[in-house]
């Protein structure tokens, strides 16, 4: 394997092992070290050579195996001692994945850096539930917003998004669901459809469908929690419409 010091940040996709790119798999096959996150499907590590060092640096709410500064330093130190480091991150590293920060730190410390984009959970998770983020006549645009900022506050962009007619996708927002729902109620969007999808694209996937008025009670009833994606918008209705069409076809075939 190549021992030239290098950091490649690779997007692992949203959870389904088959939703990583071919370029991502090739990068894993040629890695000397792989630092991987908690949201990465462990089956992806089967593409890694038996000689490759694996380091779990996953972060969950309230549980940090490594602080971000330590991860930055590991990327650099392992690259100089071992060669090609793959930083494997869930979804797409440039969408709330801190991939840009890690690449900047590595570059400042003399490393060659590269990025392999991943399929973002913000797009793929709703799609797996037949929820399109845009649909002609229903939604002309979409927002993807973090529910919690660096300062652990609710993003101000959510209040702006709630005023629009766009589909609104919120990541890392379950802890502030009450505040988020209140912003949509303030805009008199009580009947706006909402979907919450937990562990999207995996075997543990769970979903709750409701409206701005009802979604909090549905979350309690179904015991939904992180990691989850919240989708606000009329496009959520497409899922039910598609199911209805499929059921009607089945009934016609039976008759």
What would you say this structure looks like, in words?
The protein has 255 residues and is α/β, with parallel strands linked by helices. It has eight helices and twelve strands. It has a five-stranded parallel sheet with strand order 3-2-6-1-7, with helices on both faces. It has a five-stranded mixed sheet with strand order 8-9-12-10-11, sandwiched between helices. Strand 4 and strand 5 form a beta hairpin. Helix 2 packs across helix 3. It is globular. It starts with 5 loop residues before the first strand and ends with a helix. The model has no long low-confidence stretch (mean pLDDT 93).
Quick recap:
The protein is an alpha/beta fold. Helices cover 33% and strands 22% of the residues.
Structural class: alpha/beta
Low-confidence region ranges: none
Provide the β-strand percentage band.
Answer: 15-25%
Strand order of the largest sheet: 3-2-6-1-7
């Amino acid at each position: 394997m190549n021992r030239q010091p290098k950091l490649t940040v690779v997007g692992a996709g949203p959870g389904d092992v088959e939703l990583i790119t071919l370029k991502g798999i090739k990068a894993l096959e040629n890695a000397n070290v792989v630092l991987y996150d908690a949201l990465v499907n462990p089956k992806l590590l089967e593409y890694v050579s038996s000689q490759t060092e694996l380091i779990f640096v996953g972060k969950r709410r309230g549980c940090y195996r490594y602080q971000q500064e330590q991860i930055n330093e590991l990327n650099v130190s392992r690259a100089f001692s071992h060669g090609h480091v793959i930083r494997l991150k869930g979804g797409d590293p440039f969408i709330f994945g801190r991939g840009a920060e890690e690449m900047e730190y590595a570059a400042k410390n003399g490393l060659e850096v590269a990025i392999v984009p991943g399929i973002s959970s913000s797009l793929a998770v709703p799609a797996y539930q037949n929820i399109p983020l845009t649909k002609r006549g229903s939604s002309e645009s979409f927002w993807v917003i973090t529910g919690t900022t660096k300062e652990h506050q609710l993003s101000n962009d959510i209040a702006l998004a709630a005023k629009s007619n766009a589909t609104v996708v919120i990541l890392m927002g379950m802890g502030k669901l009450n505040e988020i729902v209140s912003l949509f109620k303030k805009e008199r969007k009580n009947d706006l459809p909402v979907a919450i999808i937990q562990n999207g694209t995996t075997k543990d996937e769970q979903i709750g469908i409701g409206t701005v008025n009802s979604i909090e009670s549905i979350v309690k009833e179904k015991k939904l929690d992180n990691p989850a994606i919240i989708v606000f918008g009329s496009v959520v209705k497409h899922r039910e419409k598609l199911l209805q069409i499929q059921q009607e076809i089945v009934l016609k075939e039976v008759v």
